[in-house]
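Why do we care about 3D structure at all? Because function follows from shape, and shape follows, mostly, from sequence. That is the central idea of this module. The next example makes it concrete: a single protein chain, its amino acid sequence, and then its structure expressed as tokens.
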Amino acid sequence: MALGSNSSGDRTFLSVGFGKIRQKSVNGKKVDSETVGAVCRETQSGVESWALEHDFLTGVIEKIFYKEDTNYGNSFEVIITDGLETYQLSFTEDSRFWFDLAKKLPNVNFSEKIKITAYDFEDKQTHKRRAGISLEQNGQKISSYYDYFDENTQSWNILHGYPNEQIDWKDKDEVKMYMIKIKKFLRSEFVRLIEPKLEAKHDVKEEPKETENAPVEVQKDEPTDLPF
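And the structure:
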């Protein structure tokens, strides 16, 4: 199995939340308190959210597309295959999980299998929240394309035009504006760097015949807070 726990079905719809890869339906039936292995979480709005939780997902990234949704917010949908299994992993566009994944995508080899792990915890030393996506390919962790930590200077170096501004992190309006800049930047970088690679891969695989991709139902997880 590609997931870190049991799953089945032609296409498994997944999302990311609470540091886990979450599955909110099985064989077309919504996960609830009677589902074996289901975990209940409380969202920021105080609503109960039942799901099967997986530690990781492995497979080959076949496609990523941008989905606009006025009700639940815009998202990036990642289509992953592993043998006969197909998964659709949804990321809210302004979540820290998508920000972290998008920063690493330019360094991904889309022809090879990848392991995707979500995390969300409080750093015991700094007491700051650490949340994001860990990627591993061929036994090696994939780093960000846009920044790296310099051990010699003990500071972060910013690369490839990533927004880098000195802001007051206690000012919510200022933080919000900065996050919007990052969101727009990563969206444009996705179009510039990632889409062409995936389209070229698809064209090669589908060259002998024409196919149509039917629209799929997207299952959204609860939104995450701003990544600051």
